[in-house]
Every structure is written in structure tokens, then in C-alpha cells.
Amino acid sequence: MNPFNANLDVIKEALDDSFLSKHYSHVALRIEWMWGSKECMEYLENVCAYEDTPERPYGRKGFEPKAFYELRKLLELHKQHYPEIRTKEPDIWVGVSHRG
């Protein structure tokens, strides 16, 4: 059992009979095990990212659209249930007009 998990029912319901569970079961199991942790948030943000990283300089192949949609929904669900978990500092300049 996941020592970080505070609300296993939420993730079990979200993954129940999902495309992700059927076609990417290793990803679904990893998310379920990490649910409620900062590591889960980081993992979801990483798998939903398109940009190149030092580990993947040419980007990633990506998921099928339906799986990607479910991953984005899980990321939002995690943020909703665990708003205190942040992986990046908020950018205070987002939305500020840069007028000269």
C-alpha cells in the first residue's frame, strides 16, 4: 500500500475501466501507487509535457489522444484534491503586460 496515499478511492474510481488502465496499465498502476504525493504530481506533469528535456532531447513519442486526455484529467484531479502540493513556484509575471 502507498504510504503517501490519502484518498485512494478517488484515483481508483478515476482509473476504473479507463482507457489508460486498459492500454497503459503500467502507467495507471504507477499513478495509483503515487497518488497524493509530490512525486505523483511531478510524474503527471512530466508525462503530459511535450517539450524536450535533457533526458529526452528530441521530445517524446507521446500517448494516444484518449490516454493523453485522461492523463490531463488526472493531473487536474490531483491538483484539485491536493492543492498544497506544488512542483514549481508560481510565475508572478504571468498575465503582466510588458510595456516599454
Keywords:
50% helix, 0% strand, mainly alpha, 100 residues, single chain
Description:
By secondary structure, the protein is mainly α. It has one domain. The protein has helices at 8-15, 19-23, 25-34, 38-47, 65-81. The chain is globular and about 40 Å long. The model has no long low-confidence stretch (mean pLDDT 80).
Task: Explain briefly what this protein structure is.
The chain contains five helices and no strands. It is mainly alpha-helical.
- Low-pLDDT parts are none
* Spatial separation of the terminal alpha carbons: 55 Å
For the residues shown, what is the average pLDDT? 80
Number of domains: 1
The total beta strand count reads 0
How can the largest sheet be summarized?
A: none
Structural class: mainly alpha
Strand content: under 5%
N-to-C series of helices and strands: HHHHH
Tell me, what's the shape?
globular
Helix content: 40-55%
Number of helices in the DSSP assignment: 5
Computed over alpha carbons, the radius of gyration is 15 Å
Topology readout:
Layout lengths: L7 H8 L3 H5 L1 H10 L3 H10 L17 H17 L19
Helix pairs in contact: 4-5
